């Protein structure tokens, strides 16, 4: 472990840098994990024709310089956190789109990472334990009312975002509902599966894939809904549940089935992008807890 993580007197600048490093690590590990059905990896473009592994690396590099700033926001400010996140987030998005020639690779994980970074900064400021429960509660507090403000008000709008349209059509709250509830999918399903897989002897790659499949089975992924509607979502969840039954990456038949899932997802143009973002968040929070044990 890096010696800086063991410093009991870690100042906010070093804490912000270390937290930013963990966030970027999570973003990279999510995209390099394989087999990840329908998603971009070093071995497949998944269900994407407009992006590949290199696109994600360029995007992550462009976003990396902003991550410590989110931590600093959480440390330095008590109010208006969401507005400050969005002000910095707009700049980060512009750099992302510049790096990817206009392709939206990581808007979802940018938002999640910003919130997690702010929550980590708040934990440091308040002197509270850097763990999943405190991070969850701070994210809840930071995003309180976001569904009411940004989704329920959509009924009176003409030009709708994808998230607003899906909320009106299906009642799905997407990433806004997830964060306003404190990342319940990550806390209840992603982290327990990831940690359990690691303890069983699986490596990080396979543990992340296990977490991905479990998350697909549990969440109403708006990326899938946007592309393929409710039938596509049910299909993806059904395949994920089959993979869980077959043992996921712990068994040969489970691994083979997950590879088969990948072929089926590509064939049906299914991409669980929302689930991928939650997997990255799972790893980030896992590592932040490890950091919290050392400071």
Automatic annotation (TrEMBL):
- What is this enzyme's class at the first EC digit? transferase
Q: Name one Pfam family in it.
A: CitG
Q: Where are the transmembrane segments?
A: none
Catalytic reaction annotation: 3'-dephospho-CoA + ATP = 2'-(5''-triphospho-alpha-D-ribosyl)-3'-dephospho-CoA + adenine
- Gene3D superfamilies according to UniProt: Triphosphoribosyl-dephospho-CoA protein
Its Enzyme Commission number? 2.4.2.52
Keyword terms, alphabetized: ATP-binding, Glycosyltransferase, Nucleotide-binding, Transferase
Q: Name one GO biological process term.
A: prosthetic group biosynthetic process
Q: Which GO terms describe its molecular function?
A: ATP binding; glycosyltransferase activity; triphosphoribosyl-dephospho-CoA synthase activity
Q: What is this protein called?
A: triphosphoribosyl-dephospho-CoA synthase
Species name: Caloramator mitchellensis
Taxonomic lineage of the native organism? Bacteria, Bacillati, Bacillota, Clostridia, Eubacteriales
Gene name, per UniProt, is: citG
